[in-house]
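Batch job 17 of 40 flagged for manual review because the log was empty.
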Amino acid sequence: MKLESKIFDSIRVKSAKKKSKVEEAPSCDHPGCERPGLHKAPKGRDREGEFFTFCVDHVREYNKSYNYFNGMGDNDVREYQKDSMTGHRPTWKMGGDKEEEKSTDFYDLRANMRGRAYRRSSATRKPRERKLLALEKRSLDVLNLGPSASSDDIKARYKELVKLNHPDANGGDRSSEDRLREIIQAYNVLKKAGFC
């Protein structure tokens, strides 16, 4: 290979190694500690965006003793928590008139809605009718039953019709065999569909 080759022109060599994060990190802010401070810890209330840099051991120690609400009274803490619900942004009452605000209190509206929902749920409901497929409807027609027939009704009608149409009950007459097959097929369809 020649040294004047185009391949050698495109080779780049790093000039110096980059320092690792540990070498670039400032030292720990804890007094007397010389280890690198890789971990940030907040400086406190009213100093948002400012951080201490600590080593692992000192950041753990700092986090155990850190209290954002230190020095605040109970009322101040409650007010802070209330404001945090809206992201510490100002809010305004909805509606226009002072008279309306007095008569339509939020909690009264909520109680009214809850009462209406309770009355609706406690009212007697009509049982849901089954949505029948064509085959299921035909099977119920074969058994001479309506769409609201219960499982016990279907079983009782099936037994009754089988006894009537069985060749042994008719003295060996085979003319009712087709009707018996229809009844058995209809019952099997309803059984597979979960009606009985």
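Reviewer: the log was empty due to a logging misconfiguration, but the result itself is present. Residues 106-122 form the longest helix (17 residues). Unflagging and moving on to job 18.
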